[in-house]
């Protein structure tokens, strides 16, 4: 297998690159990343493997994609590159449309062009549980059969990209699988997201900005479990366990209220309860996500392996031990974002 990972310098992408290199019959892993604010070469700086190569460029550049497909004889694209933060999509949706929808369109058309020239390329399109919308307290978990019901601009652009993929499968018979996953946590996550933001603020003695009543529920999965799931989907499509056009969900049955996570982080960092600051709620805030992953279990033999308590503790430890990474990431534009998003509240 000769793999192109898009967004491999981001949080999940960098773990996918590392996990892919553990598969013995993987001959090549190319990482194409345009290094937006959330992409850092440092996330891959520990990778010393002659099969790995980084290319600084955009998924929106079709001629670059086709050149990589041809010269590197790519057989599978693991597509993770995206604008990924809900709050940013509320402030400005344009980059989300450009990357998540238009970027996916360019990937699909490039794959189609290669197919017409006789090169078959599988696509694993990495999507999110947010495309299914929000659950009421007693609703069952999402399954692959749930209708799409995106409720924030980020989720809408992910749902649009999922539908484009399905349309290309149906119309042009490209080979693609869509994976949808719940909230990831772990090392290397950009500190605009709940767990790294709260961990870093807790360690620094800063305020911990909890949106609304803090009782929103997310279903947390360790990034290594998700990365393994993406690779299982890739192998499942190659081996015929998954057919083109199929969707597969990943989750970990860790439904937890945000406030409980913040309190746990306070304990793990010896911070103070008084650092908690309830702030204005996120507009259109989804109340609850929960992912059913029976299909992944049954068809791919995949299950999450990292327990929440241990996973959270080692994640917090990672942020404590990687102060250089934290410092390089929390300078410049990051500070502007925090000031703009939270104003004087933190
Ligand atoms: P991230 O923001 O940490 O990383 C995104 C990466 O994409 C960055 O390295 C960025 O530089 C790169 N990128 C952005 N635009 C690009 C472009 N035009 N060309 C090339 N590279 C570009 O995001 P993440 O949390 O790692 O998410 C990765 C993927 O997984 C996304 O598609 C996201 O929707 C999906 N996902 C994330 C989660 C989660 O909890 N974080 C859960 C489910 C699905
Ligand atoms: O569910 C999968 C999705 O999870 C991914 O598709 C997205 O890319 C990823 O960003 C994530 O979206 P969320 O909006 O759920 O994650 P976030 O970390 O931004 O927020 C998690 C919860 O914490 C949410 O209910 C909002 C709340 N929150 C977040 C921040 C940043 C706060 O209360 N305070 C904060 O400062």
Q: What does this protein look like?
A:
This protein has helices at 11-20, 62-71, 86-91, 94-116, 153-172, 194-204, 223-238, 258-269, 294-300, 308-321, 323-329, 333-342; strands at residues 2-6, 28-33, 52-56, 76-79, 122-128, 175-181, 184-185, 208-211, 217-219, 221-222, 247-250, 255-257, 276-279. It has 346 residues and is an alpha/beta fold. The chain has a domain at 2-186 and 221-250: Rossmann fold (3-Layer(aba) Sandwich), CATH 3.40.50.720. Helix 2 (62-71) packs across helix 4, helix 4 runs parallel beside helix 5 (153-172) and helix 6 (194-204) runs parallel beside helix 8 (258-269). The longest helix has 23 residues, at 94-116. The mean pLDDT is 97. It binds nicotinamide-adenine-dinucleotide and 2'deoxy-thymidine-5'-diphospho-alpha-D-glucose.
Cα-atom Rg, whole angstroms?
Answer: 19 Å
What percent of the residues sit in helical stretches (DSSP H or I)? 40-55%
> What's the N-to-C terminus distance?
47 Å
Assembly state (oligomeric): single chain
Structural class: alpha/beta
CATH class of one domain: Alpha Beta
CATH architecture of one domain: 3-Layer(aba) Sandwich
DSSP summary, beta strand count:
13
CATH topology of one domain: Rossmann fold
* Bound molecule types: nicotinamide-adenine-dinucleotide, 2'deoxy-thymidine-5'-diphospho-alpha-D-glucose
């Amino acid at each position: 297998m000769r793999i192109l990972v898009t967004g491999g310098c981001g949080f999940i992408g960098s773990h996918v690159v590392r996990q892919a290199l553990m598969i013995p019959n993987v001959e090549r892993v190319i990482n194409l990343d345009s290094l937006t604010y959330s992409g850092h070469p440092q996330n891959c700086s520990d990778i010393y493997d002659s099969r790995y190569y980084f290319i600084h460029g955009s998924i929106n550049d079709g001629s670059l994609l086709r050149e990589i497909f041809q010269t590197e004889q790519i057989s599978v694209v693991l597509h993770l590159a995206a604008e990924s933060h809900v709050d940013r999509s509320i402030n400005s949706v344009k980059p989300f449309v450009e990357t998540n929808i238009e970027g996916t369109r360019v990937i699909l058309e490039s794959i189609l062009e290669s197919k017409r020239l006789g090169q078959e390329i599988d696509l694993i399109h990495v999507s999110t549980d947010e495309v299914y919308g929000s659950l009421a307290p007693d609703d069952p978990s999402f399954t692959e059969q749930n209708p799409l019901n995106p409720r924030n601009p980020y989720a809408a652009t992910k749902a649009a990209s999922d539908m484009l993929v399905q349309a290309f499968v149906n119309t042009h018979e490209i080979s693609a699988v869509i994976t949808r996953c719940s909230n990831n946590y772990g090392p290397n996550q950009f500190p605009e997201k709940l767990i790294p933001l709260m961990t870093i603020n807790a360690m620094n003695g800063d305020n911990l900005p909890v949106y609304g009543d803090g009782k929103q529920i997310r279903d947390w999965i360790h990034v290594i479990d998700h990365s393994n799931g993406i690779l299982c989907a890739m192998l499942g499509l190659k081996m015929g366990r998954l057919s083109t056009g199929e969707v597969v969900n990943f989750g970990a049955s860790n439904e937890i209220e945000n406030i409980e996570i913040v309190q746990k982080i306070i304990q793990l960092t010896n911070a103070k309860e008084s650092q908690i600051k309830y702030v204005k709620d996120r507009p259109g805030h989804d109340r609850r996500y929960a992912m059913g992953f029976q299909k992944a279990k049954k068809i791919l033999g995949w299950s999450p392996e990292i327990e929440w308590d241990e996973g959270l503790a080692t994640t917090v430890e990672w942020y404590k031990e990687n102060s250089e990474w934290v410092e390089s990431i929390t300078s410049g534009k990051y500070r502007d974002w925090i000031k703009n998003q939270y104003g004087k509240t933190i």
